[in-house]
Each structure stands twice: as structure tokens, then as C-alpha cells.
Amino acid sequence: MDRRSFLRSSLVGCSLAAHPVFTPVVFASAPTDSRLVVLVLRGAMDGLDAIQPLGDPHFRALRPRFEAAPHDLDGFFSLHGALGGLLPLWRRRELAFVHAVSTPYRGRRSHFEGQDILETGAGGAKGDMPRDGWLNRVLGLIPDSNARFALAAGHENLLLLDGQQPKSVWTPAAAMAINPELSRLMRAAYEDDPLFHPVAEEAFLLSEESAREPIAMTGRGTMAEMDRISSMQPIVTRDTVSLARFVAKQMRNDIRIAAFSISGWDTHRYQAKNIGKALGSLSEAITTLHAGLGDVWNKTVIVAVTEFGRTVRENGTGGTDHGTGGAMIYAGGAVNGGRVYGEWPGLGSGQLYRDRDLLPTRDMRSVLAWTLRDHLSLKAGALERAVFPDLDMGNNLQIIA
Amino acid sequence: MTPTHDTLAHIRFGMGYGPRGPAVFPGDDLAAQARRPHPLEARYAPTDERIAYDLLERLRVMRQDTSPLGERETAQFLASIKDRIASDQISTIAIAAESDQGLRERLAFFWASHFAVSGKGLKLSFGAAALVHNAIRPHIGGRFADMLNAVVKHPAMLYYLDQYSAVGPNSVIGRMKSRRGLNENLAREVLELHALGVRGGFMQGDVQELAKLFTGMQFGEDGFEFALTKAEPGGKTVLGKTYGGLIPSENDIDGFIEDVALHPQTARHLARKLAIHFIGTHAPKDLTVHVAAAYSRSYGDLTATYRALLEHPTSWRGGLLKVKTPVHYIASTFRALGVKADIIVGLDAVERQRQVFQPLREMGQPLFRPQGPDGWPEDPEAWVTPPALAGRIEWARRISRHYGGARDPLLFAQNALGEDLLSPRLAALIGKAPSEDTGVALTLISPEFNRC
Fold first, then answer.
1. Residues of B in contact with A181 (CB under 8 A)
2. Contact A318/A116 with Cβ under 8 angstroms?
3. What is the DSSP letter of B204?
4. Distance CA B368, CA B125 (A)
5. Most Cβ neighbours (<10 Å): which of A183, B250, B298, B448?
6. Could you report the predicted ipTM of this complex, rounded to two decimals?
7. What confidence category does residue B25 fall into, taking pLDDT thresholds of 50, 70 and 90?
8. How do A168-170 and A150-153 pair as beta strands?
């Protein structure tokens, strides 16, 4: 058995004694053909800027110094210039948006709390927040899913996929730059340790498979990059494209569910420049996934979610502050695209949330639940009980084809 | 080969060997380290809480000036604050790398994880390091009740678990502003994480009553304050005992903390956590029972508790089944390479990121940023994932090039691991290494060096 099939049939971290190296193994075919990619946009993406409600009579007056989005979508909403790269998908009906949605989170508008609630799928009452991610609970509902089925891509821990169900964890940025001779010696150092050995093998193999995009190790480049990681500052990762390429490649193999995060959305100041960069990164991630998935695109759903939206009014520093209602972005061949879904509440006085935010008219989790039901064939009951606590699924928007 | 007593003392219960071999433990009493602060701790003390408070206040005021000059000055000031925080945080690694009191350093990390505060945001980034220095270190060898008291009242904890803004519904302020009220976060975590444990037999009612008891705790520019106007009046019954009366006081809270610290469930919870941390999840029940008994008998004296752990035969049986956390791994590597504290603290901003902060993120343990108040995982599998292991390997490769220098890699292995842990396989591999620094790297990446 060659090394590649050895690794494909192994579970990360399982003991050497259980290894199928010396016994013939028929690798179980993947439990489903459908692919799902969840993108966590960290920092609170401004849905009102990404997908502008130019058709709403109150909108422009709320943000007089912001530019109007150039790409009309449906006569009411228009697309931000930095997402222009996605217009071909819009025209092919493989891109959709859901507006005026949010998680159940209300209150402090804290990034950290908000992201925890976003990723754990919590119902709202702070004390009852689950400790694992909703996507990990989804894995528990899929028969025969194993570590080669789901991928948490990236360095930072992804709470969204944290939990009891096994998954793969990798990022091309983790790829080691070690020559083959030294690699051989190092791998040999792990051979006797049942915990380290299979993990080391996987690490070296994945290193070979993924290209490393070196982070500039000199001066300001490093600081900017490091700063980005430790804050929500809008300095966008260069890893996003290589991450997307890597995820696409894995999804053509065994991976069916993947997730990674994109930072840089916290646009308190100079929003025009900063959201432009972040949206550009998101656009590149989606187009890179599209290119890499090839014929598998038809069975793919990509959904981008964020912890909350931003204030309807611009602030005094050319940006916006933390809000409530926001937008979701859907892309993929399995999406009923070419539409902006959701019930628009309006932006007149009396129509806002706390007179400052876009009013959410739907629980984001219910939209996700319908996606999981339609795309992965999961049962509504299980989604309302096990995956999203205290969820009322409501009606189906039919986002999934 | 079964590790010797000396090796276990240094590796299972310490920060590993330095370049000159074993440290000397006076009178062979490992546990005595717990009461003895090392001079390095004072030398590299983090920013005082009140100074941090002032700096953040100044930042807040500066941010109100949105002129271009004002923004530039704010950006510079913010950068200087972040630099100070990074320096505070890296000091914990520096002290652990050089102090010859390995057990005390391990215990500092243990309690920091037990009382985890996640440094998200500037306030907490300052506070997390300060909490370890001011609320944990002074009590590592003392009474658990004193440590719990100091931690619960620390600004970082009060802020992290939202206690500082809580208001008793019937307090003076509570009756004026109907919007603010109780917050159960700290109360729940004290019962569930800090003292009794998740199966410690407390009820939701206890959490609610404790939340009432904790009202009034806040902090200001002079540190901890008890605000009478926010505190809930009347008796609060927690775990069957009533604290406080018509006029609430800080003493009521102190009374509860004393009682919960001495609760038998707390003894069991802490004993189990210590056993798992040093020995592993397979630690036998009789070890936990033995340690819990010592805790209770000594009224929660931690030195006596550690001594009970250290005198149990299980502690000296071979088989290092745990994996060093990334922080432990990095500190023990610096230690083995003889990199002193002042070098680590003296690293410039870029090198700090390259040599410590970024590798810790890649290994899965961003410094002072655990996922939640339950701290860092104990199970080895949590730390040994493909990207986390790749992080260790890449870092070991770079650090051995940087500090490995001209040294005999086999000698390095013998010093770092002790003769008993260095396997013939690893020694043979080191012999095949193409250069001295790659030979050093082989030791650093080995399972032998990564386990504890």
C-alpha cells in the first residue's frame, strides 16, 4: 500500500495498533456527494455596504460620504465594486444574498461574544452556550463521517468545527520548508510513538501537497500580519487564496465539509479602503474555490456568515460601528442564485433596531438550517434539536436548488 | 528505559533540564519551591494594574481627538501600549526558561489555566499577565482560599466574567435604573470551574444566589472596590449557608470564599486536576483521594497538597504520557539551549513575534488567549494535530539554527533529555544529521522532548 492510500485510510491521531497498514482496507466511499464550505467573516462585515439597498429612500442620507455601489443587482440592491469579480456568478444564478438577518445575539455587540454565538449556533441565553461548534454537531448527524470528511482550514482554532466529531485540520501556511533528507530523519524520530507517528506522517505529506505562501519575515510586513491576527484590524491575509485553493483540492478528494475564516471586516474607520480590501479577499476566495472545484462546483454550496452587521449611519471617522442586522453570502452551483433573499424592514425612523442598526427580520440559523436540510439531507427535527438550540426553522427560502 | 527519579523531577514536575544538567533542590523537597518566589519574578513583573488602567484611560481620551495629528498620536500611543503588553506577556516565558524552580513555574501555568482569563482586547491583555503575577504567584504555595479570593477580586476576572457591571436588583442603583441587573457569569464559573467542579453538586439556585452575593465587586483607578450602592441587600443562601444581612459587605463574600475553598468537592476537584495535569488522565483514583485528603487535612494548604502528590508512588512511575503545552515546549527549549530571560525579554518586536508569539499561535496556544474560562486542554491529542505539530517542527528547525550554534548535538541530547530518556534510535538519527543545528533540531522535535 503506498503512503498516500495509507494516509487516506487512517484517522488522524489513531494509535498505530489500529492502523490498517498491514491489513487490506477498502476505503468507505464518502457519505455524500454534496460539498459545503462555510466562511466565517471575522470582524462584523457591513452587509449594508457589501449589498447596498439603493432602492431604499432613506439609505443614501444615512451615509452621505460613502460611494454608491456601481453594480445593480435587482433594481433595489446593488453590489459593492470590490465584489465585481463575482458578477459572472450572479449572472449564472450561482450567487445569492440574504439580507436583514442575524444570530440571536443582542446586547454588547462584542466581537468575541458575537463570534462565539455565531460558531456555536447558540440560541441567545448566555448561560446555555454550547461549547462545540454547530458544524461539528452536523458531522454527528452524517452517518459514516470521519476525519477525512471535514476540514478546518487555517491556523486559528475554528470553534465552528470544534467538538466531539473528528475532523482534519490543516493550512498550507503550516507547510514545513524542510528538505527531503532532514524530513526523512525527522519522520523516523516519530516512528515509535503511537500518538505522534500518524500525525507526523500526515503533517509531512500535507506539507508536500500544499504550497507555502511565505509571510514576509522582515519589518513592517511581519508586524502588520501579526497585528491582523491578534486584532480585527483590516489588514487582509495573503493566505486566503492559497487556503481556498487548498480547500478546493481537498474537496475534490475526500473532504465534503470545510470551513475557514477571513478577517479584516471591522471597519470603524476608512471603510471605503478597508472594506474594499476585505471584500476583494472574499471575492478571491470564492472565485478561487470555483476554479479549483471544477465539475464538483455543481454540488457545492459556499456560505459566508459574520457575527453581526454594522450601524446604518456612518460614524465620524469614515466608517461604521457595530450593529445588528447583516447579510449572508451564498455561492455555488447548488444555489438558487441571482436573488437577494430576506424580508427588508426598511431604514426609516421607527424601522431600525434601537434607532441605530438594521433590524434583523430572520434568525440566520434558520437559513443555515434549511441549507443543511436541503443540501445535506438532514432532518429538520435534528437541526432544531441537536444542531441549533431553540431554533424555529420557519419557512424555506429555497436558496438551495 | 524507566526514567530516573531525577529525570522525572525535572521533566514531569519541572521545566526540563538546562544546558548544565539538573538543578539542585535543597533538601530534596520539591514542594518547597511553591512558597519561594524566584528573583526573576520580581525583575520581570508585569505592568501594575493601576498603571495599566491609567494608560487605557489616556488612550480612551486620546481617541476622541479625530484630527489627523490626533490620530497619528493615538496610533503611536496604542503601539507603545501593545509593546508593553507584549513585553509583559513574554516575561512569563522568560522566567520559566531561566528559573531553576521548574515546579513553581509549572504550577504558575497550571493555576493560570485553572483561573483562565482570555486576553481579548487591551484591558484583558494587560490583565491576564497581571492576574498571574499578583493574584496567583503570591499564593502558589499558600492557601487556596487566598488565591481564590485574590483572583475573584482581580480587575481582569471581574471584567472578563462581567461582574464589574452587575447590579443587585434591590440595591440603591438597582432600584433607580431598571435596565442593569445581575450577571451570573462569574458566579457560575467560580462554582463550576474554580472550586467545586462541574459535577460538584451545586444547583442553578446556588448560581443565582452567588451572583447576588457577588454584586458590589468592581474596580476603579485604585484597584478593587466594593460598591455598597450596587450590592444586593439581604441574606443570600449558597450551598445551604446564608451570607450577609440587611447591609451587604465585602466580608460576606470573603466568608463564602473561605467556605467553598474548604468544601470536600473542591478538594476532590483540585486534586483531580493536579493529578491529570502532572500524571495524565489515567492517574489512578487513589492518587486523587490521597491528594484531596491532604488538601482537606491542611485546610487547603497548597504546599501540603503538592507534597502529597509528590510523595505518592504513582508520581515516580515511568512513562511520560502527557505532551508539553506549546508554552511549556518553548520555555523548556529555551532552557535546554541556555537562552536566558534577559535575552528573551530583550527581543525586539519583530523577533518576539517570530520566536515566540507567532509560533505559539501556530502550535495552537496563542499566549494568554485560551478559548474560554476553562483554560487549556489537558489531553495530548488536543496538542498533536498536523498543523500544530508542523508548527513545533518548523519552529524547532529555526530556533536550532538561531541558538543552536556550534554544539555537539549528541551532547545536547544527553543534557536535554537525560541519559535515560535518550533512546538509541534517536541517538542514531542524531548521528546521521547533516549538520550540528539539524542534530539539535532532531532532539527538539522528538517525542521524547515533547512529552512530559
1. 434
2. no
3. H
4. 7
5. B448
6. 0.93
7. low
8. parallel
Residue numbers of chain A with a pLDDT score lower than 70: 1-31, 124-127, 211-238
Name the amino acid, one letter, at A227.
D
What nine digits make up the cell of B340? 536566558
Using CB atoms, pick whichever of A174, A189, A196 lies closest to residue B362: A174
Residue from the list A127, A219, A226 with its beta carbon closest to the beta carbon of B357:
A226
pLDDT digits (tens, 9 = 90+) for B311-349: 999 999 978 999 999 999 999 999 999 999 999 999 999
Distance from C-alpha of B443 to C-alpha of B416, rounded to nearest angstrom: 8
Helices B302-311 and B285-297 pack at an angle, to 10 degrees, of 150
DSSP-derived secondary structure for B205-250: HHHHHHHHHHTTEEEETTEEEE-TTTSPPS-EEETTEEE--SS--H
The C-alpha atoms of residue A32 and residue B91 are separated, in whole angstroms, by 50
Cα dihedral across residues A376, A381, A382, A386: positive or negative: positive
Phi-psi map region of A308: left, alpha, beta (phi>0 left; psi -120 to 50 alpha):
beta
* Closest chain B C-alpha to A22 CA, distance in angstroms: 23
Length of chain A: 401
Residue A219 with chain B: CB contacts under 8 Å? 350
Give A198-247 pLDDT, tens digit per residue: 999 999 988 887 754 443 333 333 444 444 444 443 334 557 898 899 99
pTM, to two decimals: 0.84
Q: What is the DSSP string of A308-362?
A: --BBSS--TTSS--B-S-EEEEEESTTB--SEEES-----STTSSBTTTBPPP-E
Torsion angle, alpha carbons of A323, B121, B365, B19, to 10: 170
Across A110-132, b (16+ Cβ under 10 Å) vs e yields: bbebbbbbbbbbbbeebeebbeb
Cβ burial, residue A24 (10 Å; 0-12/13-18/19+):
exposed
The CA dihedral of A71, A75, A77, A80, to the nearest 10 degrees, is 10
Q: Residues B40, A222, A306, CA angle at the centre, nearest 5°?
A: 105
The pLDDT value given to residue A27? 39
CA-CA distance, B116 to A65, in Å (whole number)?
44
Q: Which of A168, A222, A317 is the closest to B66 by Cβ?
A: A317
Task: Please determine, for residue B385, whether its predicted confidence score (pLDDT) is greater than 70.
Answer: yes
Q: Is A330 helix (H, G, I), strand (E, B) or coil?
A: strand
pLDDT in tens, B151-166: 999 999 998 888 888 8
At A398, is the secondary structure helix, strand, or coil? coil
Gap between the Cα atoms of B326 and B328, Å rounded: 5
Cα dihedral A63, A65, A69, A74, rounded to 10, equals 30
CA–CA gap between residue A74 and residue A338 (Å, rounded) = 8
Residue corresponding to grid cell 495524565: B280
- Would you list the DSSP string of A142-160? STT--TTTEEEESSS--GG
Largest CA distance in chain A: 71
